[in-house]
Amino acid sequence: MTTLLAVGDLHLGRIPSALHPDLLARASELGPEAAWSRAVTEAIDRQVDGVVLAGDVVERSRDVLVAYGDLKSGIDKLTTAGIRVLAVAGNHDTLVLPRLAQEIPDLDLLGANGRWQEKRVGKLIIAGWSFPRPQVRSSPLKDFPRMAEPERVIGLLHCDRDQADSPYAPVSSADLEAAPTAAWLLGHIHQPDDLSGPRPIGYLGSVTALRASETGPRGPWLVRWTGTAIEAQHIPLAPLRFEAVAVDVSDLEGPGQLAEAVLGRGRDLARQVAAGERLPEVVGMRIVLTGRCRFERELPAAAAELLNESRPWKERGMVLFVQKVSIETEINLDLEELARQSDPCGLLARRLLILRDRQQPDYRRLLDQARIKLGRISGLREFQALDPELDDADVHDWLQRAGQRALVELVAQRRSER
User: Fold this and answer.
1) Residue 337 and residue 407: Cα distance in Å, rounded?
2) Domains and CATH numbers, the chain
3) How far apart, in Å, do the first and last CA atoms of the chain sit?
4) What tens digit of pLDDT does each residue of 373-417 get?
5) What is the pLDDT of residues 246-281, one digit of tens each?
6) Kind and range of the H or E element at 290?
7) How far apart are CA 214 and CA 286, in angstroms?
8) How many CB atoms neighbour CB 338 within 10 A?
9) How crowded is residue 227: how many other Cβ atoms within 10 Å of its Cβ?
10) What does the pLDDT average to over 333-355?
11) CB 183, CB 152: distance < 8 Å
């Protein structure tokens, strides 16, 4: 049997975002360097034959000295244990990874200058391709070589799958499946795919949460060649993890009970995470308030207080903290009826209905307009500690929360004037 530890996007030099202020001093214990150290220990403990890195090992081209110490230290330990280290360069480390490979002799860079290259590790053949420049608009698979033993070949590639216009080595799922390999281990997208099938093809994902929207387990993959097939097993060992946690407020009598409800769900989450073999150091909870709220007018203030005044606490050997509170409760208002009105309440109701249906023609326009405004705010000095990269989910959540709060206030104001 031949075994590999496959490491996805690592981004050495990147500081984890969205930490609670009380945890900022521990940022170095929770970032990519700590995840790399854990991965090295895992590889040695499992006595794997090789460690493969699927690109974006380093965050920026100027991070040579930032990444050198931790990367070299880990590779030295692996080499001492008889474990080979192979890597391909991605779009983030196109320039810096080849330089690091020159400084670290035991780092074997595959596919330099955009030319496919194969190396044997045990009974397996690793075929890798590296970015020759930060942007590549053609598919690397058009030059994929013929393979004498495709059942033993694992493709290692940093690419953008099923995005034909992408500047980051676009490839199609069909071409990946048609290539003469037994598996494809991909980098670039931080959300891991399910690689547990008979022919693993997909993204390894980030090794640790690099931003709060990267929820769920993170870590490398243990890849085994059994002699007849390739098997892949996810090893969640990230020091920092974020989880979306739904809290149903339907049974709460008032805002004073919200904190206890969150603590209860935090205990449930800690119990679930603790069932795994390797505990994260810190878990950030992205709270989603659901259900039909009896105190909807007071809920936004209660949610903001929970977020701004809560402190980290410890459960089952992990530190938990509230990273975000989203309100997705069902407001006690008939949006369809309100939307027929021609006043500000009707306008808000119509926009909230649009946000409920992504197929609505104006859905994308609302998100794009809001992203521009939020982008201006996030660029201010006061907000530099926040994650500047707003995805659709973040923008949608902000719009929905602000719209619901404004509508509840408008309706209450109108009723009080009668």
Assistant:
1) 13
2) 2-234 (3.60.21.10), 240-417 (no CATH)
3) 78
4) 877 765 554 444 445 566 788 788 888 878 887 888 888 787 776
5) 999 999 999 999 999 999 999 999 999 999 889 999
6) strand 282-290
7) 11
8) 20
9) 9
10) 91
11) no
Give the residue among 207, 179, 183 at the shortest CA–CA distance from 195: 183
Model confidence, pTM: 0.83
**Strands (E) located in 139-229:** 153-158, 160-161, 170-171, 183-187, 201-203, 221-225
- For the record, the structure tokens of 273 come out as 């995470």
Triad 355, 359, 365: Cα angle to 5°: 60
134-191 residue pLDDT tens: 999 999 999 999 998 999 999 999 999 999 999 999 999 999 999 999 999 999 999 9
CA 256 vs. chain centroid, Å, equals: 33
> Sign of dihedral through CA atoms 406, 410, 411, 413?
positive
From CA 55, how far away is CA 7, in angstroms rounded? 9
Residue with tokens 């050997």: 317
Contacts of 84 (CB under 8 A, 6+ apart): 49, 50, 51, 78, 106, 108, 121
Residues 39 and 235: their CA atoms lie apart, in Å, by: 9
